[in-house]
Amino acid sequence: MKTLLLLWAIASVAMAQITMSDAQIKKVGIKVEAVHRIKSEAMGPFIGLFEYSDKGAKNYTLSSEATVVELIKQTGDPVKKGEVICKIASSELLASRYELIDMRNRLTLAQQYARKDALLYKDGIISQRESQKSALEVMTLRTKIGELQNRFIFAGADTAPKDGMIFTIRAQQNGILAHAPIKTGEKIDPFVPYLKIANASAFSAYIKIPPKIIGSIKKGSDVMDKLGVKIGTVSAISSSVDMMNNSATAIATITKTNEQYRAGTSSEFLIASAKTEEWMLLPRVSVTKYKGKDICFVRTATGFIPQTVNIQKIYKEHIAVQPQGFTSREQVVTEGIINLKGILSGMGFE
What is the pLDDT of residues 300-315, one digit of tens each? Predict the structure, then answer.
C-alpha cells in the first residue's frame, strides 16, 4: 500500500491526476459533496421566514368580537371545500341572521308590489314614477340582502345557527389551514383574520435585509437557497425599516418548492445583485492551501485532481469561486483532504 501511494504521490507532485479506486477512497476516509452554480455578487446569506402565499388564499374575518366554542381542524390540517373547521358564538352573525330573514320577507312583498305596479303603469292607472319607486325598493332590498350574505361569506359561516347563537364555520375552498384558532374559548378580534386557507404548495419568504444594502436589492432579483440554487424571485421590498430589529423586508415568491419547506420556519437566503456573471459555490471545508495557492480536490472517474481556485467571496458555510475549470455536476472533497495533500507532497499513507 505504501509503495502504491508513493507512486501516486510521485505522479501528482505537479498537480496531476491522483488515481484511486473506490475501495481505496473508502479506506482513506475521503468524502465528497456537489458544487453549485450561483449568480455572482449574491448578497447574503439573509435570514427569512417561509409563509404560505396570500395569492389565492382565503381569509375569514368578523366585524365584531366572537368566541370559539369548538375546534374541528387545526393549523396545518388539509381541508376540502365544505368541511367543518370550527364553531363560533357570534352575536353579530345572530343579529345578521334575523335581519337577513326580515329582509328576504320584505323582498318577497316588494317584488309582489313591483309586479302589480308595473301592470298598473302599463294600463295607465299609476305614473311611471310610482312604478319606478316600487322597482327601486326591490333593488335596495336586494343590495341589503347581498351585504348581509357577505358577512357570512367573510366569516365562512353557515347562515343558519346551531343551538342559539353558535355558527358552523366551513372551508370555502380546498387547501391547507395556514392559520386557525388554538383553543376553545379563544376570542376572535374584529377585522383580524382568524382563519386562513392557503394553497399547500404556494410559499412566500419574508427576508430580513440590513438597511444599508436594501437599495442594492431590486424587484425581480433572483432568490436562492444557501447552496445557491434559485428558488424564487423578489416580488416586493418594504420602503421602511422595522425599528424592533433594524431591518427592512424583502418578500420573495417561491417558484421552486421543497418538501422540507414549512410555514413559520426560518432559513438562509441569498439574493442576486444586478450583475450576471456566475460563480461556483463550494463547501468551505473543501478549499485548502497548497504551496501558497487555494486549491480543492475534484472527483474524477479514476480518482481526484487538484484544482486551483480563485476565491471571490467567503460565506459562513461556503466559498464562491470563479467558475473556470468547473461544471455544475462536479463533486469536491470535504473529508480526507489532509491525505490528498500528503500525496501531493510525496508522502505515503497506509
Answer: 988 999 999 999 888 8
